[in-house]
Amino acid sequence: MVDPNDLSTTVLKARIALLATAIGGPDYTSNLDPPPYKLGDDCLACLKDLKRWFRLVDENQNRWDVAIAAAEYRILQDDLIPILIDWENKCSLAHKLNKDSYNKEYHDNIALLCVQLIVIMTCPQVLTDQSTARQVAVYSELKKRQLEYKRDILMAERGKVLRAIVRLASKVIKIDRIDRTPRDNVVLRLIINLFRNVVAIEPGELNITKKKQISTKGINSVDTLPPGVSMDDISLNTVIAAFQKNKVLGLVLTLASSMSVEFEQDFINTPLMELMFYLTKDIPPESLVGSDKRQESHNDSDRVSSTGAELLNLLDKENNLKKNVIKNTSTRHSRFGALLSIQTPDSGRLTVSGGGQNLLDDSTALNKLDSRKKWNKRSVQHRDDIVAEGLPNSLLNSGTKSGFSLDSTMMKFAHFIDDFIDSSFNTLLHSVTNQYTGDQDQMTTLEKTEYLLFFSWFVKYQREKCNKDLAADISSVDSALQETSFILVSTILRTGYELKNWAAVHAGMIAFNELLLLISSIQDPYNSDEVEFIVGKLFSDDRIQLLTSLPKTAFRYSLQYMKSCVELVHTVLETLEQYTKDNSLTVTRKTKSTKRKEITEEQVTVLMDSQGIGRDEALDLLNPSFKKMEFNFMKVLKKFCVESIVDTYINYLQRFRELNDTEIKKAIYFLHRVFVQASEQSILFRLDLIMLLKDMLAPDGVSRKSRVRKHIEQFSNYFLYKLKKRLKSSPSWYIGLLFPLLYGSEVGYFQKYGEVKPHKENNYHAVPPSRFKNIEDEEQLPESVLKDMKFGILVSTLIDDGKEELLISLISHMQVALDRFKSWLSVNVQHERETENSPDEILGSENFNGSKPFIFDKDFRTLLDLIGYSLPLNVEEQCKLPGNVEIDSLQDSLELVKKHLATPFQTPNGLPSSSYLLRPKLNASGSNAEDDGWHGDDEYDYEEPGIVPDGQQLFVTDDDAYFEELEKDMGDKLSGKETDKDKGIAKSKKKPKAKTKRSRKQKDNSSLPLHDIGEQPEKTKQRKDVLSKDFISDSEEEEDNINPLFFENEMYMRWLLDKHRGQLPEERYALFGKFSAERIANNGSLVNDYSALFGGAVPDLEDLRSSETTSDSPDRTLISLSRRVAAEIEKASEEPEPQNTHETDLSDSEVSMDDFPVSTSNADARTSPLTKRPTTDLSSSEDDNSTGHANLSRKKRKVLFADDEDDD
């Protein structure tokens, strides 16, 4: 505490005591009992002096000495409250008598000064890193004093203080807006701040520092209350009842509903938002929905106080504890002692003693032994940074919720919330959003948190109400869907994550989750431009990157933080899956291509006149700078399949006793997605998950009555079944379970998939060699040192990948080549032919036991290039060491390879050598793609257990999920495949780095055994055979070798697309395939008649060339089209009939969106090459025949925009 002998403190207290005496006091000369309050002669001046003391000392000097002194002399209870009550009584009497009271202006000024002082004395006290030692010393005492203030303001003469404050506000409201002065607007702001302060006052925190968490054992909320104050006196129920009775809630509705019309919104918008936030923050929105209906069903026995509710909770815990003791205690021998002693191999002894309950079974005895072991446990400090900047724990870090002791109070408050949403929410949120958008840099953490939680609470309330009440309208909160609101919420979330402001991140996750749920609840979202904007931004790569980063660190923080993160991830995946499945979304992204069409001024003018648009918009339409590509949900799901996110979910589920069924199910659902839908089984093969499932399914784990237990059992059964299969096929996993996964190496691939990484050698083109990243101080290093480092990086990387044999073979070849070059040089010198070079030395597959690493190994190709080898570009070219290579350089390279093969290379950054390499990616749908080696047709020891259906299908397939797109691969157009959407199309050469897509999205109409996401090897082989070298080639040099007939066919295709306005019918696609194949087969000549294709004679090539306005460079759409068509037709004739399969599902009627989606890969169904729909089982065929061809109509494709360039 503050030193009472401090001279300055003593003098200050004396000054405050004099002011308290001079303000006024009880009039003991009166005959009334109790005596009425009488103002002092200089009451107004004394109140002004007290206000100056607060500003001079507490505000300017960061001290709370005046506040403590004022509390000690009870100025608020004994002076300010009596003054306001007396003023209210006199004003009420004067109103009834219809005349003004004596000296009205003087008394009004005194009442207003009292309100100002009450606002100062009830202002929330916050401890920050800048708080002084004096403030820390008086913090706890001052918080208790404020609790007394709150009780007295709410209860003094049945809340007459609140009525007096409302009267002050009504005097300002009566004045016309045009006649109001700035002082009047400040009065309204002051009054709202007072109401906010009263609601915000709560018991102080047990811990006031995050540096060192003190022990709070034996301390409860009662110890933070002052004498004579109970939780019922200051509860939210008491506050709402007092506000309702004294017309405070009506005043709030008046101000909020007319904010932009009758009042200056800049003065009152933020205080109103904060007031509504504190009124609702501890109330679950679902508890208010339908409260009027529950009013009739509840009886008097249900109406208990908060203290009674706590007592019932404690009695319930005691009852459960007794049951647990009885269950784990033997009935007959529990009164007798017992002793069990075990001798260890090192002649030690382990002893268990105690009652019979310690020796009921082996596991109990061993657990008792383990509990007595002692070790130096590592201290881990949980990073609950939510107390930063004075945020109370109850704001975000507490799961406690306030309840209502009376249903009547809850019903009145629910009516108030409904009125507020209908009349004021949109206006208030729009005003606050605009203000914070302009002042975002000045927003404090508390303001960000208040805004986000206010946003999320009302959105959730209205969403819940619309689900239960058909008359409710979701448009009452449509301001939450505005572009400015979404941008502000997203920006706060992103900046909070970047600045590691975890309180803002926590609140941002809650708000973002509610925003996504609101979008999903709208029946026809594309009728709203705001929803379209939000969904488009949500699908951008930077947004996905942020959302995948949040759960990676969530396990370090509190349970409430993890809950919000798990909820957000669940909602994000559900929303993305819903929109990609139901609407076949395509994302339009900006490109950096500088190739532009030549546009004439006449074209621009005609388009401007016909469409009525501006010049810039016309130029964008004539020469768009966007490209369309389909959104890949599986690609996004893969980004969530990382070890750090799995760590978060396992840490989350380890506290399953603190979670409800819905929360547990969502976590299990995510693990199901990772294990089955994404086929990332290896990432879940870990001991902590096995132990977690064991604990959850133990007798004292998840209750057998819980509906979520069956889902845990089903997932556990399938998980353990797959694990046993993996252990049987790959015994190395017995060791692998003990260690983290390895990435980016041959060993990591073997650990993940149980087989050696396959090297696909039926490609035509060679892989691009790896590139070096920037090396530290590269410009300052000598050339010899830099060369040594590059050799060390490459050799070390190859060794890490287990490719020592390649290096040994390379050294052997270099040694032979070096000897031959030296011999040729000697012979040439003797014959005076020094200018002649020796023959090139060929490096072939025979040097590597038949493999071709010089074509298909990126790192090895880089090493060859660094040595001086001539790298082949395809399988037809040879890898050779030119005869004109410098012998000294070759000798140095040989020595460097030998050196780093024998001596480990130490990287400057301490990371693996591969961290200095950039490995360009190839198209993953080609034959160079990695195959996991785990197919759905391998022989099982027994039938897979499958998830038991629960009356509702969890994964709904869509047989009509096929939509046409002009930019789609032509081969897939002809074959009708839904899966190979991105196969074989080379990326634009203008891009700085060619990224390719690996789509693992499978057919939606597949019928598969549950959890089986494998792919038939025949189907894989079919993909490989269709692939052509021209679909991979991407270089300028190789285009010269392409058959000119491909360019001519491309012109014919563009002519047909222009004629049909970009919508070429399917039958003409097939006919054009035959047309192009016939031209190639006959060297440009035609045999059959194709007038049906062109609507007349075949156009002349010269006419097509003269009409072409685009570049002569091909877009590579028709390359090798004829070969692909021929291959597809040949395979169609050889393809077997599909086998009927059966798909099981899992559902829960309680959670509508928590269904476990089965993998969409197709293991058995086959696709006819030239048909649009794949053949499925008989039942689906019958349904299709019954419905005719109505389902074949094309659905509308919605184009979304995102500011991203690359197709990641």
From TrEMBL:
GO terms for cellular component: cytosol; replication fork protection complex. Residues 1158-1170 have a biased composition (Polar residues). Residues 909-953, 968-1039, 1129-1208 are annotated as: Disordered. One of its GO terms (biological process) is mitotic sister chromatid cohesion. Keywords: Cell cycle, DNA damage, DNA repair, DNA replication inhibitor, Isomerase, Meiosis, Nucleus. It comes from the Eukaryota. Residues 968-985, 1012-1032, 1129-1145 have a biased composition (Basic and acidic residues). Residues 986-1001 have a biased composition (Basic residues). It is found in: Nucleus. The keyword Cell cycle applies. The gene is Zr_TOF1. One of its GO terms (molecular function) is isomerase activity. It comes from Zygosaccharomyces rouxii. Belongs to the timeless family. This is Topoisomerase 1-associated factor 1. Residues 36-342 form the Timeless N-terminal domain.
